[in-house]
Structure formats: structure tokens, C-alpha cells
Amino acid sequence: MTTKNLLQTLILGLALSSCGDDDNTTQTTQDLQLNISGLESLGDDFVYEGWLIVDGVPKSTGRFQDPELKKQAVNIIDLNAATSFVLSIEPAQETGQELIDPAPTKLFKADFNGNTAPIAFGTINSTFADITSAKDQISGDFFLRTPTDDTGGVNNMNDEAGVWFGTPGTMPPAASLELPVLDAASGWTYEGWAVVNGVPYSTGTFLDPKMADDNAETSEFKGTVNSGPPIPGEDFINNLASTSFPSTGADLRNSTIVISIEPVPDNNAKPFLLKPLVGDSETETAPSKYEFKENLKSFPTGTINR
Question: Taking the CB of the first residue and of the last residue of the chain, which one, N or C, has fewer CB atoms within 10 A?
């Protein structure tokens, strides 16, 4: 064999060897498909984070802020071995151990059946399970009244400036919200809202829907501190500085009233995407009452696919 032919043979052998190596290259990542409808932006301080559950151990699939995100590249071995996918809400600025352990605020869990995992709430949070499975039993009333603004027991005739989540007609008004009690360790709390001219104003947070707001003992605008009822709600008439209503006073007639489920901590000035109860007020104040409507369509839906 001539030197020229030997050189050509060596070059061909190297080329074939190179092709063989490419064919045998092991794929290390694969796209996890996120087919989720109903997520919302969390703002600058919080992010979503996905987790694969492998042999009972959570393994992060990555953090994201875009609620429209459709895929994440993940370790293929973990993906094939995963039994579930969990979506949590995390502070944007985290370090150390926090990056490898999901926060208590887990939004949903999806269990794989083959390559598809339908989004479910009941498998990760008993409260969400109670809410989503008891669709027809989620209910409540609210009414417009300003009991903390009464002088000497006399109504000051500005009842359009307060909202309370209960049923008027008794003293004190009866609690009416039919929602499960939340566990403080769950990472979630209820929050009431009055949406006036498109702007939401918080009435406060609570874990027990049949008890006064969490800060009722220190607020003169709610709870029994200043003759308020022992149920969630707030008088806005004396609290204009914190709600930024016009100086003429709050008017909650013809407004939308919302009960949301909020992550903790939370610094967003609008209701979170989970809004199990929504209702509209009209022009009448107490003793008239208004009915909340179940709003479970606000909960995210979809599937996770591998």
C-alpha cells in the first residue's frame, strides 16, 4: 500500500470513529412540558419553582417568572423516575438550603400516570382538596355596614363604607363563610378585598373564615375592639389613609367583593389568582345582604407531560 493510500485509510477510519462516537452520545436532559392555564405574574419578589419528586425527594426543575412558560430542560434520569411534579412559590432572593427545598407555599401537585400528570390540588394540600371537592358547599354572605363608626350606639349613616363577611340581622351578625380553616403552617391565608372602580383594597387576612381578621385585636376598624362584629371584614370610613379612597369617604356600593387564598409572605397589592368566592354589592346597606358565588374556575388547570 502506498503512503498516500495509507494516509487516506487513516483519515477515513478517524471519520468513521468520530461518527460512531456521536451516535453513542448519551442524552442527559429532556424537556418537561408545562401545559398550565391560569397562572399569573408574581411580581419582582417571588418566582415559581418546579420540583420533580424522585423516590420521595424533591429535585428542582428550575425557577421562572413567566406564567406562560411551557417547558423546562431537566435531567432525563430524574424525569423518567419521577412520580410527581410540584409547583411552589418561592422568594426571588434565596440562597443555600432554600434552593433545594420547596417552600410551604405549594400551589399544586401532579402525579404521573405514564407520561402525563394532571394538575390536582387535593393531593398536596388538604385545604385545597376540601375546597375543590366540595364545590357546591362553598358559599357565604356579606353586607355593607360601619359599626365601628357608630357614636354612642347611633348609626352615623355611612354604612356604604364598610364590608363584613357574615349575615346581618342578629347581634352580633352571624358568620357565614363556608370555607375550610387554613393551617398557619401551610403557607397560605385567606384575604378579603373590595374592588372599587377596578382598584382592589384589602380588608385583611384570616385563617378561620368564621372568626375576625388576624389583626382584629389591634385594629379599631375591625373585630370587637371598637364595637365591630367578631367576623372577617373592615370599616373603611375611619381608615382612609391606608386605603387611599377619595377624601369624601369610601363607597363600597356597586363594587366587587372577593375572598382570595394568598401565599405567605405576600406583598402584592391585588388578589392572588386563587379566588374561591366572588360577589357584587348593590346600593342597599345592612340589613340587606349579598351572596358570594363559587369561583373555582380561578384555580389553575392543565397537565404536566414528559
Answer: N
Mean pLDDT computed over 27-50? 93
Please name the amino acid found at residue 167. Answer: T
Please enumerate, as own/partner, the contacts of 269-276 that have beta carbons within 8 Å and a separation of 24 or more: 269/200, 269/202, 270/200, 271/191, 271/193, 271/200, 272/40, 272/191, 273/38, 273/39, 273/40, 273/298, 273/299, 273/300, 274/298, 274/299, 276/131, 276/138, 276/179
Average pLDDT of the residues of the chain: 84
Place of cell 402525563: 116
CA distances in angstroms from 51 to 42, 61, 188, 199, 260, listed in the order given: 18, 5, 19, 34, 25
Total tally of structural domains belonging to the chain = 2
Please give the residue range of the domain that contains residue 262: 132-299
Q: Cα separation of 276 and 10, whole Å?
A: 72
Q: What is the pTM of this model?
A: 0.83
Last residue of a domain, one of 122, 148, 173: 122
Closest CA to 298 of 38, 35, 34, 36: 38
